[in-house]
Design goal:
Homodecamer; pentamer of dimers. By secondary structure, the protein is an alpha/beta fold. The protein has eleven helices and eight strands. It has a single domain, classed as Alpha-Beta Barrel (TIM Barrel), CATH 3.20.20.60. The structure holds 3-methyl-2-oxobutanoic acid and sodium ion.
């Protein structure tokens, strides 16, 4: 399986290809993505995508553990990281360790991701020094929606740009092995990628990041409304409705099931 040191070592290797990361929440999804991805992220975006919540704030550690374990069971090649949900790490580095260790023990994932910059540096250092690899997440941090007020891109003015850059540097210096940069102006993402010594993984950031991540359901076209940074590679919603429409019509016209799908005594 892809390891944390191998991912970390992609930085500064001029031959290295960009890291490929996608979210996964279920066993079957993980099986289908695994061969193509370096990293799978069990994102707390599952709150929106799977549970229909309107933010990631209500996501619980039990949700993350249940889906994390399923994704580890469905993968064998990609490195698996599980998001720490809101409320499970901010209070203190000790609380963060207790919850992060529980996530690793109960899922089999090899790393956790948490949102925040300078305010989380001490926690990241504490976890890393005690055997828990951490991915940082700066820029647009959805768990802070109640403070931010909207999901618009960050770093539009000087002060915001300086804050995102300082956050990124703090996370890298604290010992994170990779950094997700979400929803920032391209030039800020480029400045971060040039100035930190760990791989940056962009989402709504820049093509020059050391890797890219998207929410799988978004790139597969399962949702009507997606952020500007999503490229849709398929129309899965359309294909699903077509299949379900055909099934419903066949049930109603009694053309399903047929002999092929029916048990009968032999002879
Ligand atoms: O929860 C998530 O899916 C994420 C990615 C968008 C980076 O944090
Ligand atoms: Na997340």
């Amino acid at each position: 399986r892809m390891t944390v040191p191998k991912i970390r070592a992609r930085k500064g290797d001029p031959e290295a290809e960009p890291l490929v990361m996608l979210t996964a929440y279920t066993m079957r999804q993980a099986q289908l993505l695994d061969a193509h991805c370096d990293m799978l992220l069990v994102g707390d975006s599952l709150g929106n995508v799977i549970y229909g919540l309107d933010s990631t704030v209500p996501v619980t550690i039990e949700m993350m553990i249940n889906h994390g374990a399923a994704v580890v069971r469905g993968s064998w090649h990609a490195q698996v990281t599980v998001d720490m949900p809101f409320g499970s790490y901010e209070e203190s580095k000790e609380v963060a360790f207790r919850n992060a260790s529980r996530i690793l023990k109960e899922t089999g994932a090899s790393a956790v991701k948490l949102e925040g910059g300078e305010a989380m540096a001490e926690t990241i250092h504490f976890l890393n020094a005690r055997g828990i690899p951490v991915i940082g997440h700066v820029g647009l941090t959805p768990q802070a929606i109640n403070l931010l007020g909207s999901y618009r891109a960050r770093g539009r003015d000087e002060a915001e740009a300086a804050k995102v850059l300082a956050d990124a540097r703090a996370v890298a210096e604290a010992g994170a092995f990779a950094l997700v940069i979400e929803g920032v102006m391209e030039e800020i993402a480029d400045e971060i990628t040039e100035s930190v010594d760990i791989p940056t993984i962009g989402i709504g950031a820049s093509a020059k990041c050391d890797g890219q991540v998207l929410v799988t359901e978004d790139m597969l076209g399962l949702f009507e409304r997606v952020p500007r940074f999503v490229k849709r590679y398929h129309d899965l919603a359309g294909e699903m409705s077509d299949a379900v429409e055909r099934y419903a019509a066949e049930v109603r016209s009694r053309s399903f099931p047929t002999d092929e799908q029916t048990y009968r005594p032999k002879g």
